[in-house]
Amino acid sequence: MSEPVARASGQVQVEYHAFHLADAGQYTQPSFHPENGLIFSKPGLAVVLAGVNSGPVDVTVEIYHSAIPLPEPAEAWDEVVDHSIESLTGDMRVTAIMDALPELPVLTPFGPGAYRARVHARGRDRAHDAHITEPVEVFLLQVWPGQREPDLIHRHNDHYGHSMRQSAQTQQPVAPPEPAEEDWRRAANERLRQRGT
Predict the structure, then answer these.
(1) Taking the C-alpha atoms of 101, 106, 107 and 108 in order, what is their torsion angle to the nearest 10 degrees?
(2) pTM (predicted TM-score)
């Protein structure tokens, strides 16, 4: 396997069962539809699902120039999914929803565009829905530039992921706003900006 161009580990604060991979200024979470039980996204922001309701989790980030093979054994992890993410700025980072920015590398150092994120998770069933003060979950994020592709599932083995996948199957999809409503909002926001200057 090729060597990562950047690698670091740290703790990330989870809130509401999630932490984000986000470009600066991207705060609006996509519609909740966790089809693979681990990560879902929109351009500029991805949501990684944790078992704990709130508290720290251990996260390691590895950045590569190109796709890497799946390490053996995959059984060391409960869940492993390859998911396409898109950076609008080339400055996507691991972010806590309501906490300081973790000291982890930029996920998208090769500029804006599509990347693949291989997300590994372990321990999401250990303290499900709990509020914790010490980490019981571990995540590994391996990221490289790559075209947008469907999710590739390497391993699905925890109960929390199963419940999220079941939820996504029974959930009614949320329709995006009508274009006219989006145009109205854009015009209203522009008027507000003009009044503020």
Answers:
(1) 130
(2) 0.84
